[in-house]
Amino acid sequence: MGTIEIEDHGATIKALNEHLQIYPTKTAIVTVDMHRGHLDPVEATLPAPVEESKRVCQNAHDLLTFARAHGIPVIHVIAVFRGLAELDKLNPRIAASRVVLSKAAPKTEAQRRGVLHNIQGSIQTELMPEIGPEKGDYIVDNKKTFSIFQGTDIEHLLRIILEVDTVVLMGINTNTCVLCAAFESFNLAYKTVVISDCVASMYGRDLHALGLQNVARCLGWVLTVNEFKEKVRAYSKV
Question: What b/e readout covers 155-180, taking b as 16+ CB neighbours within 10 angstroms?
């Protein structure tokens, strides 16, 4: 397979970003799997790279603090499983990955101990302290697949309770759960935004870049933390 360079669509993406309007009263932040199971350098069972985890947590804390101060609701979606039997029955690909990864050189203390990923009641299911939860945040803790919508009440929360039209995504992994959330959000007719400073992938920088390109060119908008703040400030009194 030959090397394929990422095409330059910068002008189109810039024009789309200029068109985007974010009204705080119609916006919700959704964090996707920002738990210790991915981001904790000691307890992660499926870890993102350590430096990427630090970057994501620091930037996410900045953005979430800003969002809460502007009255934007924050929803945390967390994958939680009952045990090994459930993990192995979810999907053949997941079961195969678990076997292969268990034979790889461990990167964290939890992996050395052979801890399973995000079992109910485990430390891995806890949010990173930089992320929350804070008073007023919402928790959706029955995510089972890449989808934040399948089998959860997040659509009811977004549409009925919060009455938002804009979904802002951050979390792990850029190219799986976050990208899946972006597709679903797009299909449900939400304005879909991914914060590039607040996402990362344990699958590699190339797939991280692919995920962001796919959102920016096909599904919605990709903004930095500062660009998001500028949009909120611009439309906070409109």
Answer: eebbeeebebebbbbbbbbbbbbbbb
Would you give the DSSP letter of residue 119? B
pLDDT tens digits for range 182-222: 999 999 999 999 999 999 999 999 999 999 999 999 999 99
What's 165's domain CATH number?
3.40.50.850
- Per-residue pLDDT reduced to its tens digit, 136-170: 999 999 999 999 999 999 999 999 999 999 999 99
| Geometric angle at alpha carbon 36, from 31 and 38, rounded to 5° | 75
Would you say the pTM of this structure is higher than 0.85? yes
Q: Would you say 171 and 34 are in contact if contact means Cβ atoms under 8 Å apart?
A: yes
Q: How many domains does the chain have?
A: 1
- For residue 117, is it within any domain? no
Closest CA to 32 of 201, 235, 223: 201
Q: Token pair of 44, please? A: 């992660």
Which residue is associated with the tokens 């972006």? 182
Instruction: Write out the residue range of the structural domain in which residue 59 sits.
Output: 10-79+126-235
